[in-house]
Design goal:
alpha+beta; Alpha-Beta Plaits; five-stranded antiparallel sheet; two-stranded antiparallel ribbon; 2 helices; 7 strands; 24% helix; 38% strand
C-alpha cells in the first residue's frame, strides 16, 4: 500500500497522482502499486513541485523494523528521521533557525 500526502501542489501534479491513486481526502492518495510506478510518481513529484509544495510518500518495506519506508520533500511542519533504525516524527519549531536535536 502506498500513501502519498501532498500540500500546496500544483493542479498538474494533483491530477497526475489522481490518475494512479485514489484520493481519499484533499491531498491524500492511496494505492497498491509496484515499486517502479512508485518511483515514477516520486520523480514527477520532484519535477512538478513548486518551492511551496510539501510531500511525503510512505510504503511497506520488510527490510525495516517498522515495515515502512518514506520520502519527503518541501518544508513540512514535522520532520521524519531515522533513529536507531526506526522512523520517528517530531514537530519542528516555529522558529526554524532553532533546530532541536534528539
Amino acid at each position: 500500500m502506498l500513501l502519498l500526502i501532498l500540500e500546496l501542489a500544483p493542479p498538474k501534479l494533483r491530477g497526475y497522482c489522481s490518475s494512479w491513486a485514489l484520493q481519499v481526502s484533499t491531498g491524500v492518495y492511496v494505492a497498491n502499486l509496484p515499486a517502479s510506478v512508485r518511483d515514477e510518481i516520486w520523480d514527477r513529484v520532484e519535477r512538478w513541485s513548486t518551492p511551496e509544495t510539501r510531500a511525503i510518500m510512505l510504503w511497506p518495506d520488510s527490510r525495516t523494523e517498522q515495515g515502512l519506508e518514506c520520502r519527503m520533500r518541501g518544508d513540512p511542519s514535522r520532520a521524519v528521521t531515522r533513529r536507531e533504525g526506526l522512523l520517528v516524527s517530531r514537530w519542528l519549531p516555529i522558529d526554524r533557525e532553532v533546530e532541536l536535536e534528539f
